[in-house]
Recover the amino acids of this structure.
């Protein structure tokens, strides 16, 4: 079984505009058209059994619309499990977190760069505590992002500070704990009770460093992810398969850890 814990898609009415903007910023190829049907087709194309979709509320006013849409997608597509999203500075953020729990969404996606906050900003800690109270895991974009190349809002040391402040929150740091900052990941985060995902690592991290991170951090805290439509599952899976870790460790990464977090 293969579970992709990091995928993206957009509602039909905004997908064209969203994809054009993101492609112009990222300047990388896309492997899906960004639609929900495109994401669903990618499951068959790349041999993925379940995809975890991660929407982002980039404005406080988007919360309700995005989470209602995420629920509709999850109800319609049996192989797509969706997280919800809140904007940490929305007036009704706590109420929306409770509604996300009622909707049956599986966690919360926060993107410090897109939402303009630092991961260790103490103003956001009550949001983290509420997520923990509701047993909603939180996945953060971590490390460098082309949208904010000069200001990284979730550096490894800052992520550790947030974790230490709210250790009861299930924290998932995308992109191996911090895109392009893996030396700092090894220095500050490896060994902590934090999950990392593998999204987009295959073209950026040295396999030897990823193998070392997995061995020292523990395969039981690594989640397979792609960042589709920006990276395909076959490339990320080949990277994991190439590493000198056991088959049991690979199974943890490919699906067992995700099953535990999703409760399936």
């Amino acid at each position: 079984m293969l579970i992709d814990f990091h995928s993206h898609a957009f509602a039909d009415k905004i997908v064209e505009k969203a994809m054009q903007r993101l492609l112009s910023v990222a300047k990388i190829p896309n492997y899906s058209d960004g639609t929900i049907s495109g994401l669903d087709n990618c499951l068959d194309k790349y041999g993925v059994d379940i995809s975890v979709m991660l929407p982002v509320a980039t404005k406080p006013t988007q919360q309700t619309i995005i989470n209602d849409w995420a629920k509709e997608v999850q109800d319609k597509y049996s192989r797509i499990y969706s997280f919800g999203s809140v904007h940490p500075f929305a007036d009704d953020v706590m109420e929306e977190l409770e509604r996300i729990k009622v909707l049956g969404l599986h966690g919360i996606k926060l993107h410090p760069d897109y939402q303009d906050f630092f991961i260790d900003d103490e103003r956001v800690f009550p949001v983290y505590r509420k997520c923990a109270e509701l047993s909603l895991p939180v996945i953060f974009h971590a490390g460098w992002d082309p949208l904010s190349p000069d200001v990284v809002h979730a550096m490894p040391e800052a992520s550790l500070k947030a974790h230490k402040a709210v250790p009861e929150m299930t924290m998932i740091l995308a992109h191996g704990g911090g895109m392009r900052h893996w030396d700092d990941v090894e220095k500050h985060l490896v060994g902590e009770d934090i999950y990392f995902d593998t999204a987009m690592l295959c073209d950026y991290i040295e396999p030897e460093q990823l193998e070392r991170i997995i061995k020292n951090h523990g395969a039981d805290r690594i989640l397979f992810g792609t960042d589709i439509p920006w990276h395909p599952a076959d490339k990320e899976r080949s990277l994991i398969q190439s590493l000198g870790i056991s088959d049991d460790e690979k199974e943890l990464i490919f699906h067992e850890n995700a099953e535990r977090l999703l409760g399936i």
